[in-house]
Amino acid sequence: MPFPPPALVAALLVIPVGGAPRQSNALSLFQAATPTKPAAPTKPVEPAAASYLSSRINGRLLPYADRATDEAGVQYLIEFDELVLTLRANHEFRASLRYRQTLASKGDRINRDPIQKMTVYGSWAVINGGLHFTPDPRRGGSGLSMLTGTFAGRRIEVPFDYRNGTVTRRASVVVVRNDNII
Questions:
Q1: What stretches in the chain show pLDDT beneath 50?
Q2: pTM of the shown model
Q3: I need a labelling partner for 62 at 20 to 30 A (CA). Which of 24, 39, 47, 96 fits?
Q4: pLDDT digits (tens, 9 = 90+) for 149-177
Q5: Residue 88 sits in which domain range?
Q6: What phi and psi, each to the nearest 5 degrees, are found at residue 132?
Q7: Would you call 110 helix, strand, or coil by DSSP?
Q8: Do the beta carbons of residue 2 and residue 9 sit within 8 Å?
Q9: CA dist., res. 26 & res. 127, Å (int)
């Protein structure tokens, strides 16, 4: 009778320190040799489907005012009052902005115009850890481009571009989850 291969002998015998060889449990040997199923792919971490209320723009508390003067010397004033961002479970979003935008002629005093409202709808997705917003041009997102923000816990930060007359600026808004908003 031929000798078994050395690997099989080693697999069947367990030699405890300071003791005699003993036979291993054949069932555990079989289980160890059985291939396991690959783990199911994990779903990427996403922010909660909820409403988020603005707290800061460019690190400053709201309301936030920005004054710009174009090449012709015309002054513009934009005041951001509030932003409510609602993320829905079906990966749609709704962003409602309350702001005031005022125009003054060259050298005139800027008078405050009434608060205006703007609502934008679109879709959102988590891609490579970033939170991507794609505005729907048919639902308030005309002229807006895709934005990529970050999220952690109850907080989302999103950069956005806005125009004050002919002057374009980039700002960053922080919104915090608020369960008291419907």
A1: 1, 3-17, 19, 24, 26-30
A2: 0.71
A3: 47
A4: 999 999 999 998 887 778 888 999 999 99
A5: 51-177
A6: -100, 130
A7: coil
A8: no
A9: 47
Domain harbouring 68, CATH code: 2.40.128
What's the number of domains the chain is made of?
A: 1
> Given the structure tokens 């481009």, which residue do they identify?
145
**Whether 48 contacts 153, CB under 8 Å:** no
Separation of alpha carbons 56 and 80, rounded Å: 10
Rounded Cα distance between 140 and 121, Å, is: 6
Are the C-beta atoms of residues 78 and 100 closer than 8 Å to each other?
yes
Over the stretch 129-139, which tens digit does the pLDDT of each residue have?
A: 999 999 999 99
CA distance 149 to 151: 7
26 lies in some domain = no
Q: Does residue 162 form part of some domain?
A: yes
127: Cβ contacts below 8 Å, ≥ 6 apart = none
Q: Is residue 11 part of a domain?
A: no
The answer to whether residue 30 sits within a structural domain is: no
Distance, CA of 62 to CA of 146 (rounded, Å): 24
**Cα R_g (the chain), whole angstroms:** 31
Length of the chain: 182
The two tokens of residue 5 are 């291969």
Give bridge partners of residue 61 from the DSSP assignment.
Answer: 56
